[in-house]
Write a structure and sequence with these properties.
Length: 333
């Protein structure tokens, strides 16, 4: 479904009994189901909204539903709770973590800040609430450049935790006083430049949709810069940006460098195009932990509730709200 729909249109391949039961229970519980683009198709198809991290954060903030069910990974459910503190936020499986978020904790960030007094901390949303509480402003892959550009040029920037997204932002902003934490998403990092070159050699006319967290993002820009692939065919985009671009591609062959769950939404956005993964093994085990059975149980039993300590939540909420309202809320001077 598209990211603006509030009435699920279920794929005919999805068990109609399951879909009807999800709808019934959601209405009964006054629950809004939000799903990330990397979730399994059976979850994407019954969610009220499917989107990237920024879209889901904004939807959680705007929702009036008494319960929000976040089908994604744990930090996303925490973000929903930060923005909707008066609502019940559930995650169907609390063990759905994130290898990228685990690359930095609050103590490590405090030490890094002490080495760079006065720096503005920009944290990718793929971080725990405790890390967000030590952050000035959050970002996603779709707005990271805007966030960094909003910071006065004479201020140092500490960007965390993804080194590939950080390198991409640094290239686009030309920011010399930006320091990047050396974290990575194990799935995106494994989509290598060598793999991309092999796929491009086999499909030289293909369009390239590449997530900036990928280990191949630099290689993609190099290939485009040297003419190995036309620069106009190379697109470094967030998952939301990929969907927008997909609708413009007609019947093209498209190579996609991101977690493979994204292919479901891309194929729905443009059935005429042929979408193939650069790395078919790029599957996040954490994103696949929420199953139809777990979603149904969450709806029936009102589990598993996500909470954030009030003191941590108050500090973390500031950073997330600045991200959501970028342009309306000033970055700290």
């Amino acid at each position: 479904m598209d990211t603006t729909s509030s009435s699920p249109v279920v794929d005919p391949m999805i068990d109609p009994g399951y879909a009807e039961e999800v709808r019934r229970l959601a209405a009964e519980q006054d629950a809004l189901i939000l799903a990330h683009n990397y979730q399994v198709p059976e979850i994407q198809e019954v969610a009220h909204h499917v989107g990237d991290s920024l879209q889901l954060a904004r939807l959680a903030a705007a929702s009036t539903a008494s319960t929000i069910i976040l089908c994604g990974v744990h930090f996303m459910a925490e973000s929903a709770k930060l923005l909707a503190p008066d609502r019940t936020v559930l995650i169907p499986y609390p063990g759905a973590g994130c290898s990228l978020a685990d690359t930095i904790n609050a103590d490590q960030l405090r030490e890094w800040k002490a080495e760079h007094p006065g720096a503005v901390v920009v944290a990718y949303v793929n971080t725990s609430a405790a890390v967000k509480a030590e952050t000035d402003i959050c970002c996603t892959s779709s707005n990271a450049v805007d966030v960094v550009n909003s910071i006065p040029i004479d201020r140092e920037v500490l960007f965390l935790p993804d080194q590939f997204l950080g390198a991409h932002v640094q290239r686009l902003t030309g920011r010399a006083n930006m320091h990047v934490w050396m974290g990575e998403c194990h799935v995106h990092a494994a989509i290598s430049g060598d793999e991309l070159r092999e796929r491009v050699a086999a499909e030289p006319e293909a369009e390239l949709l590449i997530h900036p967290e990928c280990g191949c993002a630099t290689s993609a820009l190099y290939l485009a810069g040297t003419g190995v692939v036309p620069a106009e065919h190379t697109h470094i985009l967030s998952t939301g940006g990929m969907l927008t671009k997909a609708k413009q591609l007609g019947d093209a062959k498209v190579l996609v460098a991101t977690e493979t769950g994204m292919l479901h939404q891309l194929r729905k956005a443009n059935p005429r195009a042929t979408f193939a993964p650069v790395n078919p093994r790029a599957e996040c085990k954490y994103m696949k932990m929420i199953t139809p059975e777990k979603l149904l149980r969450s709806l029936r039993e009102n589990i598993v509730e996500v909470t954030v300590e009030p003191e941590v939540a108050a500090k973390a909420r500031r950073a997330v709200e600045r991200m959501v309202e970028l342009g309306a809320v000033p970055v700290p001077a």
